[in-house]
Design a protein that fits this description.
By secondary structure, the protein is mainly α. The protein has 6 helices and no strands.
Length: 224
């Protein structure tokens, strides 16, 4: 449709002056070259805009998946911590009741991470030292692996989402260059309708300058 519109606009009016045919021929050749460059640059810009849009969608989808996996890891981490704390409370009760066999049973049910913190907590002499931490979960040695995994996935999801946003902005820049090329197409085509050589020349110069600006912008944009 753009090519057809350009052809219609570039048709010389029947009452155009007969003089200056040599200059008119050169102007027409330059216009054809400009239109060819516009067509190629527009196709290139549109192609990369579509690719960056697809990359944005892929990265946003990946970010959503990572968020879901992070939530699952945080949920499992919270459940594991709740189980350890509950088991620790029952261990305290068995210990106070003097039932060492039951206390040892609960002790074996601690998760590996909680067991490390539990051993470090016992070294603080919590039954006699009132300044000791309230339980193994408050010890710096306690590390919940699922919570760590969830935080890692969360950070990765944030980075992926930011990358998707950058891809969207890159696609927008390609679209902006495409709009500039469409403006060049209009100027080149409309210049052929002017009867005065000075107006046609000025319009052509503006079109060429805008074309150079648009093409240079496309060249500097990142590509996939």
């Amino acid at each position: 449709m753009n090519v057809e519109a350009a052809h219609k606009l570039s048709e010389q009016p029947k009452d155009s002056p007969a003089g200056g045919k040599g200059w008119d021929e050169i102007a027409e050749i330059l216009a054809v070259i400009a239109l060819a460059v516009v067509a190629i640059a527009t196709a290139w810009s549109g192609y990369h805009a579509a690719r960056w849009d697809g990359r944005q969608a892929f990265l946003y989808g990946t970010s959503s998946r990572l968020r879901i996996e992070a939530d699952e890891a945080f949920t499992l981490g919270g459940q594991q911590k709740l189980l350890d704390v509950s088991t620790f409370n029952t261990w305290i009760q068995a210990k106070q009741a003097g039932n060492e066999q039951l206390a040892d049973l609960y002790l074996r049910r601690f998760s590996p991470e909680y067991k490390v913190a539990f051993d470090a907590w016992l070294k603080t002499d919590p039954f006699h030292d009132h300044s000791a931490p309230a339980g193994p979960a408050f010890m710096p040695e306690y590390v919940n692996s699922k919570n760590v995994e969830g935080q890692t996935l969360n950070d990765e999801a944030t980075a992926t989402f930011d990358e998707g946003t950058e891809s969207r902005e890159t696609a927008d820049r390609y679209v902006r260059q495409t709009v500039l090329l469409a403006t060049v197409l209009f100027l080149v085509a409309i210049a052929q309708r002017f009867k005065f050589r000075g107006v046609r020349t000025a319009t052509g110069v503006i079109a060429v300058l805008l074309l150079l600006y648009a093409v240079s912008g496309i060249v500097t944009l990142p590509r996939i």
